[in-house]
User: Which sequence fits this backbone?
């Protein structure tokens, strides 16, 4: 009987030991899977690297949630995984991990075959890509409303942007719309839906595929569908500014507000996008896209689409947005319609 009790006691002690050992292993495993940022003031932040956009690191801290850190305040970084896509100021791209350096303000980029020492300020872009699709999604949504009592007309606007990032591939979807409301009618004045895929071919060179839907009553466009393929090159001018230029061929199908269809329009798109970041309170971002279309099947027709958005951070995840847009068509489907449409859109933006 005593022997049985002794055996049971040994078994319970063994189970307890294995449980404690498992807990320690799980805890160590969890800590080993976390990224670490060492700040110049001596603080250490543990969590997960999300992305670095020129001058600012987005970091999911296990203690306080999603935070933004200026790279000028970072001493060095240690990433737990090698699923990072790193673009540098000298237009090089690496896939690997970040390991701490003993030199303040510097970090090692560790790839499968090399180990590079680089100043953190020379990292223009850093993205963490995962096998989980949902972890690689980010975006924002904006909405606003205005009303004039004298005219009795209200105007509703909205915009949506979603971005997916993988190792060499990026997919973005943006949409916007402006609608007018009065006592008796609802009018969809302007709509735009854009889906763009970018594949990194080599360094800053990209292959670009784009699909777009447009509606613009001011330019007599009831609907337009256009698809284009292009080559793109990403320029980086400074730590707060970058631009991407594209050129290629596009095919459009459009219907005018009078019901006239054009089923095949061959065009040559040429454009560029600009992004400017200011990471001092208040944080501010300016994004601007410009595309020129030169017509071939309608020789002499030139179109120009421009869109510039200012986002001014109010508080965490919310910002004030101001958008300026301009659309020009030298030969609109309805000759009596205007050739230019422009305006401003004001809204409140939530980032997710």
Assistant:
């Amino acid at each position: 009987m005593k022997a049985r009790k002794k055996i049971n006691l040994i078994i319970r002690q063994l189970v307890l030991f294995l449980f404690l050992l498992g807990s320690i292993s799980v805890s160590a495993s969890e800590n080993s899977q976390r990224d670490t940022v060492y700040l110049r003031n001596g603080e250490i932040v543990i969590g997960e690297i999300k992305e670095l956009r020129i001058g600012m690191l987005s970091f999911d801290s296990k203690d306080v949630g999603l935070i933004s850190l200026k790279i000028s305040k970072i001493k060095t970084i240690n990433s737990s995984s090698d699923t990072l896509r790193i673009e540098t100021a000298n237009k090089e791209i690496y896939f690997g991990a970040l390991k701490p350096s003993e030199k303040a303000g510097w970090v090692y980029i560790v790839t499968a075959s090399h180990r590079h020492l680089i100043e953190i300020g020379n990292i223009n872009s850093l993205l963490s890509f995962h096998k989980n699709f949902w972890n690689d999604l980010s975006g924002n949504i904006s909405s606003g409303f205005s009303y004039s009592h004298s005219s009795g007309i209200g105007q509703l606007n909205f915009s949506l942007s979603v971005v997916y990032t993988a190792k060499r591939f990026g997919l973005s979807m943006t949409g916007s719309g402006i609608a007018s409301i009065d006592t008796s009618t609802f009018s969809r004045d302007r709509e735009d839906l854009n889906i763009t895929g970018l594949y990194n071919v080599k360094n800053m060179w990209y292959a670009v595929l784009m699909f777009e839907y447009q509606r613009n009553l001011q330019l007599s466009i009831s609907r337009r569908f256009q698809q284009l393929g292009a080559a793109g090159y990403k320029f980086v001018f400074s730590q707060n500014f970058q631009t991407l230029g594209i050129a290629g061929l596009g095919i459009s199908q459009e219907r005018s507000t009078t019901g006239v269809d054009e089923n095949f329009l061959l065009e040559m798109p040429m454009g560029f996008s600009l992004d400017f970041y200011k990471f001092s309170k208040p944080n501010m971002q300016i994004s601007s896209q410009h595309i020129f279309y030169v017509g071939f099947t309608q020789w002499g027709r030139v179109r120009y689409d421009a869109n510039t958005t200012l986002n001014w951070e109010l508080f965490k995840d919310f910002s004030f947005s101001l958008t300026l847009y301009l659309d020009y068509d030298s030969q609109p489907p309805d000759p009596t319609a205007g050739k230019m449409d422009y305006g401003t859109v004001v809204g409140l933006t939530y980032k997710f």
Notes: The chain has a mean pLDDT of 84. The longest strand covers residues 221-238. Helices lie at 2-32. The radius of gyration is 26 Å.
